[in-house]
Amino acid sequence: MIGQSGNFNNDLTVPPMRSMRYDSPAQLYAAVPEVAAFTKHRPSVEEDNFYYFQRLKGSTTPEDAITFAAFSAEARSAIHWAMQAVRTTLPEPGPEDAELLIAIGQWMDYPGNETRWRALQLALFAPRRSPIVYIGLAVGWSGGIMAPNDPSRPPVWRTASAVNAALLTTLARGGAEQRSVNMARILDAATSLFRGR
Q: Bridge-partner residues for 147, per DSSP?
């Protein structure tokens, strides 16, 4: 069927976005060596992303599974996951995060330099580092130049480290008595990242 504009392509199904940066954890650790500074465990050459994630989930340091998911997912997917996990785990953000939440939402709806820069500016000048502020930093570092007058680009690992900080801070804020429940909630939400590969 031809779309309203007369173009056949308007009616075609768009293939799903790739959600993983690399095909295996070994490729990730080789290409982004910074991930090793954040994790206790290392992948074997034959492990695929989901198997390694599952192994980390069941380890004595399941935080490594959060870190691995943050680093292995494409920036946009990781940020969406972090936002979902933070909003589910800490449903009442502080009033100081309200403007930044709006800016992050605008970037999610309309990703582009202007919305990205706005989120970054608010996050950089936030009075304290909340999980939402870390997500704002992740948005700001997710791609492109840092500012209209700054042609530098952040390293690829910056977004992942900010997502990781957002989620680990969320765990800490949830309290020790809720830690295992919140950990399971965050890791269950991460499972969907590995389905789209």
A: 150
Report the alpha-carbon distance of residue 129 to residue 100 in Å, rounded.
12
> What's the distance, CA 27 to chain centroid?
19
Please indicate, yes or no, if residue 20 is contained in any of the structural domains: no
Residue 80: what are its φ and ψ, rounded to 5°? -60, -45
Helix 179-191 to helix 49-57 angle, to the nearest 10 degrees?
A: 170
Q: Does residue 122 sit within a domain?
A: yes
DSSP 126: -
The answer to whether position 1 is within a domain reads: no
pTM, two decimal places: 0.88
In terms of C-beta distances under 8 Å and separation of at least 24 residues, what long-range contacts does 124-127 make, across chains too? Answer: 126/96, 126/97, 126/100, 127/96
The answer to whether residue 55 is domain-embedded is: yes
Q: How confident is the model at residue 90 (pLDDT cuts 50, 70, 90)?
A: confident
Burial 7-16 (b: 16+ CB within 10 A, else e): eeeeeeeeee
Total domains in the fold of the chain: 1
Question: Domain span at residue 73?
Answer: 25-196
What are 20-30's pLDDT values in tens digits? 889 999 999 99
